[in-house]
Amino acid sequence: MLFYPKSAIFAAYKMKLRDLEYRTWTYIRHVLTAWNTGGEGIHSPYLFYLVRFLFYDDNTYYIYKDIEYRRSCMLRAPKVIRTEDYGTGHYCERSVMEIAKTSLERPKVGQLFFRLIHYLSREAGRPLQIAELGTSLGITTAYLAAPYSRNHVWSYEGAHEIAQLAKKNWEALGLHNIHLVEGNIDETLSVSSARGLNAIPHWDFVFIDANHTYEATKRYVMHFIPLLNEKSIIALDDIHYSAEMERAWQEMKALPEVTTSMDLYHVGLLFFDKHYIHRHYKLRL
Model confidence over 86-123: pLDDT tens digits? Predict the structure, then answer.
């Protein structure tokens, strides 16, 4: 078994401090420049509706309490598990509560996804195909899967023990429309035909929360773009996590296939409908 040497741990600690300083500055900048919060300046009627009536819907839907209970269980779990880092080839041991504290998506973002998937499902009138890169403990996956049991959620996770905990959370929530794909995401995406995923004509919603590097983020987005339809949405997590992720976000929203983007600070949304006015919006969630 391989473990991180002390020098690598120290370097990682310095990087975390640097990224924390960067995120503090970008958050202040975002708050001061998020002029489109509440729908101001959004000209598309469809996008205006999403922002005014979905983004800021503060109703507590039926599944929120149950999913957040599973989150609270993870935040209190002292069990130590082994996790893999495919970027370095090393393993490390972390407690479940530490993973939950540092890796889980915020409730506001998960609940926004729930409302978006609910609305998209109703509009499409058919089962949606949803992809998630980076399952973690499966809390955000639950928000993606809960709106309609007929939807199919394909969740990719590299760490086996984390994936097993996610499966237990889904079982506790009674969610049976989630298909877990384990292994190195770079490899499992490239061999998706072995899982029958090439039979899927397009993806309706993609959430990318895996390797937070410029190269990986760009690679994931470019993988999915040919597999989208006009109403598809790609959500990128932690777009201001570091200068590297900020660079990836700036380049991805400038792609010719992207017609509109929304920067919610913690997550960025990419839209591909050719009928939208080509604009980039900033909002506070």
Answer: 655 567 889 999 999 989 999 999 999 999 999 999 99
Token pair in block for residue 76: 């209190």
pLDDT of residue 108: 95
Q: Which two tokens stand for residue 142?
A: 């639950």
Q: How many angstroms separate the Cα of 50 from the Cα of each of 56, 72, 132, 234, 260?
A: 9, 29, 21, 15, 13
Task: Kindly provide the residue ranges of all beta strands, DSSP E only, lying in the chain, ordered along the sequence.
Answer: 80-85, 90-95, 129-133, 152-157, 178-182, 203-208, 228-237, 260-263, 267-271, 279-282
End-to-end, the C-alpha distance of the chain in Å comes to 42
Of 259, 283, 255, which Cα lies nearest the Cα of 272? 259
Question: 3.40.50.720, 3.40.190.170, 3.30.360.10, 3.40.50.150: which CATH number matches 7-73+104-282?
Answer: 3.40.50.150
Counted residue by residue, the chain has a size of 285
**Strand, helix or coil at 216?**
helix
pLDDT at 3: 47
Spatial separation of the C-alpha atoms in residues 6 and 3, rounded to whole Å: 9
Intervals of the chain under pLDDT 50: 1-4, 6, 8-9, 193-194, 196
Q: Tell me what pLDDT residue 43 has.
A: 84
Q: How many CB atoms lie within 10 A of CB 64?
A: 16
Question: What's residue 44's pLDDT?
Answer: 87
Question: Considering the entire predicted model, what is its pTM?
Answer: 0.89
What is 110-142 written as a DSSP string?
A: HHHHHHHHHHHHHHHTS--EEEEE--TTSHHHH
Map out the domains of the chain as residue ranges.
7-73+104-282
Residues contacting residue 17 through CB under 8 Å, at least 6 positions apart: none
CB distance 124 to 195 below 8 Å: no
